[in-house]
Amino acid sequence: MEKLDIICGVDEAGRGPWAGPVCAGAVILDPSKPIAGLNDSKKLTEKKRNLLAPLIYEHALAWGLGWASPEEIDTLNIRQANHLAMRRAVNALKLSPTLALVDGNDAPTLGCRVETLIGGDGIEACISAASILAKTARDAKMLEYDALYPEYGFAKHKGYGVKAHSEALRRLGPCPIHRMSFKPVLAVNSKTSSTKV
């Protein structure tokens, strides 16, 4: 890291679910306005995340969210869609970073220097902040989808492959926000298609 670097943290939420988009967050924190309690979003309660997110929006020097749709995930694959969401998040920043700190060990191309950090969302405050924004934004989006497709229970499991989701998928088949290329969805969709023939 150079002394004058403008550093943004980058992280995603929703890589593993069977349904819904993937969301990435990018955050440039203001060193003069530290935010207490930042951590890996998965280690925080939903209540704590929802308290921290507005503080990040208010106090960060810049923040951006980027999305990749289920269709883009199916077309590109989840890794490339994840990178696309991260690029969109960084491009949405009102400041141009010179260095992006990305959680994990898979470096996307972001138009600036990139350093990956395994477990970075629990170590670097800017990555923690990005993690929290991505998670809360995606959860809110899945609540919207729950209103459209209430029978799948998206409000509870956010599209992850829990038993209730698996049972709903088997019973109803996939809905428009399911990731058709993911094996559990593909398997059910194939059975549904062959039954209809």
TrEMBL record:
List its EC numbers.
3.1.26.4
Sorted keywords for this record are: Cytoplasm, Endonuclease, Hydrolase, Manganese, Metal-binding, Nuclease
> A Pfam family matched by this chain, by name?
RNase_HII
Checking InterPro entries in the record gives: RNase_HII, RNase_HII/HIII, RNase_HII/HIII_dom, RNaseH-like_sf, RNaseH_sf
Compartment(s) of residence? Cytoplasm
Q: What highest taxon heads this organism's lineage?
A: Bacteria
Annotated RNase H type-2 domain residues: 5-194
Top class in the EC scheme: hydrolase
Record has Transmembrane helix as a keyword: no
The Swiss-Prot or TrEMBL record annotates one GO molecular function as: RNA-DNA hybrid ribonuclease activity
Question: Which reactions fall under this protein's catalytic activity?
Answer: Endonucleolytic cleavage to 5'-phosphomonoester
Task: Give a yes or no for keyword Signal in this entry.
Answer: no
The cofactor(s) it depends on are: Mn(2+); Mg(2+)
Residues noted as binding a divalent metal cation in the record, renumbered to the chain: D11, E12, D103
What does the record say about how the cofactor binds? Manganese or magnesium. Binds 1 divalent metal ion per monomer in the absence of substrate. May bind a second metal ion after substrate binding.
Family statement drawn from the similarity comment of this UniProt entry: Belongs to the RNase HII family.
Main function: Endonuclease that specifically degrades the RNA of RNA-DNA hybrids.
**The name this protein goes by in its record:** Ribonuclease HII
User: What is the source species?
Assistant: Hirschia litorea
Q: What is the lineage of its organism?
A: Bacteria, Pseudomonadati, Pseudomonadota, Alphaproteobacteria, Hyphomonadales
